[in-house]
Amino acid sequence: MPVPQTAPAERTLIRDRVADTIRSAILDGTLEAGERLHDDQLIAWLGASRTPIREALAHLADEGLVEMAANRYTRVALPDPEEVLDALHTLGILFGGIIRVTVPVMTDRDVTRTVVRLDSELERLREGGTARVVLTLDGAYNAWLRLCPNQILVDTVSRVISGLAFKLRVDSVGELIPSEHLIELYPVFRDAIIERDPVAAELAIEAIHMVDRTAKTID
User: Fold this and answer.
1) Mean pLDDT for the chain?
2) Alpha carbon of 180 to those of 174, 177, 197, 212: distances in Å?
3) Closest by Cα among 114, 128, 116 to 178
4) Where in the chain are all domains bearing CATH 1.20.120?
5) Domain 81-208 adopts which CATH fold?
6) What does the pLDDT average to over 163-174?
7) 67, β-bridge pairs
8) What residues does the HTH gntR-type domain cover (predicted)?
9) Mean pLDDT across 44-71
10) What is the pLDDT confidence band of residue 11, given thresholds at 50, 70 and 90?
11) Where in the chain is the domain with CATH 1.10.10.10?
12) In the chain, what are the helix, strand and coil shares in percent, each to the nearest 5?
């Protein structure tokens, strides 16, 4: 069998770099929902050839951040209000599992930092913030991924979290997850962390994501 060349691995690295750059631009709003993505413009921006760019876009389409229709368009995905509840439930179930295995191994420093973050998020809610303000990748979700001791679980969730969190970026999310709901449950979650109670913490994060509520469609 011929010895594999290094080019595929190099191309994979380029594809991953391109995907990371485009993903970050989508999540921070540089690339807006529905914006068309043209190969020539991406090539000039990213300094990469067409092949790894198309591979990266296909990967982001699998994550739910990009929509592709052959010979028609490639664009940043448009969050669908009808998918918000399912995405919210999925995030709650996934992070319920992460929290269940993470709480027992948290250090005192981890607990202190988590409580400070939760108190800060609770204050933002009391000052008029919404679910879109506190349920963010950079805040609530990535913080738990960094603490989780189960790398397989972290890798699995990391592959889908961007697309799921992106689906929450609709105006109606504030109607689905009222700030009062979060203000009521954040202290419950916070206390479970302080008490090192993984089951209570898991149930609290699932309740925050309305896993225990009857499913309904947003009008």
Assistant:
1) 87
2) 10, 8, 24, 16
3) 128
4) 81-208
5) Four Helix Bundle (Hemerythrin (Met), subunit A) (1.20.120)
6) 77
7) 75
8) 12-79
9) 92
10) low
11) 7-76
12) 70, 5, 30
